[in-house]
Write a structure and sequence with these properties.
The protein is about 35% helix and about 20% strand. The chain is α/β, with parallel strands linked by helices. The protein has one domain: Carbonic anhydrase (Beta-carbonic Anhydrase, Chain A, 3-Layer(aba) Sandwich).
């Protein structure tokens, strides 16, 4: 990728304070070309990572975490789909070489509950429809990028992921 260097080391400025933390994870210079779009609800983040890593076999991926995830890209209230998101997604697709987009909606999403004004079970059909609309929007923007959708469900403390037919 243009502008990317593999053996890059930066001289830190002399007035930079001592680090407060140093990660044990090594830097991974190779991009995988995958993007996951999901809700920013932090209670689901580790499960989304595990699903992408262990089930979809995506070792690393770009993240676009916003309230509602795919619902953010779906048409709502007459506003254009993904208002404000298209430019950032076009940037990621172009600069990060995105070849695959994974959409994940989750059970009990507050963004979706507020929009549909119902309980979790009543909102599920709307959430599934939002994933389909988001996929349709993304396919219109990025015809060459593979898009897939999933619904994450919760039953007590157990979390499961279900592929949606888009």
């Amino acid at each position: 990728m243009a502008g990317e260097q593999t053996n890059w080391k930066m001289e830190l400025p002399p007035n930079l304070p001592m680090p407060v933390f140093t990660s044990t994870e090594p830097w991974q210079s190779q991009r995988v070309g995958a993007l996951a779009i999901y809700c920013s609800d932090g209670r689901w983040g580790d499960a989304f990572d595990e699903f992408c890593h262990r089930s979809l076999l995506i070792p690393r991926y770009d993240r676009f975490a916003v309230p509602g995830g795919p619902a953010f890209l779906a048409s709502a209230g007459g506003e254009p789909p993904g208002r404000g998101a298209r430019g950032q997604l076009e940037f990621l697709a172009r600069v990060h070489g995105i070849e695959r987009i994974v959409l994940i909606a989750h059970h009990g999403c507050a963004f979706c509950l507020e929009r549909c004004g119902g309980n979790e079970r009543d909102c599920l059909p709307a959430q599934i429809d939002d994933v389909k609309k988001a996929a349709q929007t993304l396919r219109g923007w990025f015809r060459e990028i593979r898009t897939e959708g999933y619904l994450a469900m919760r039953s007590d403390n157990a979390l499961s992921f279900h592929r949606l037919n888009l």
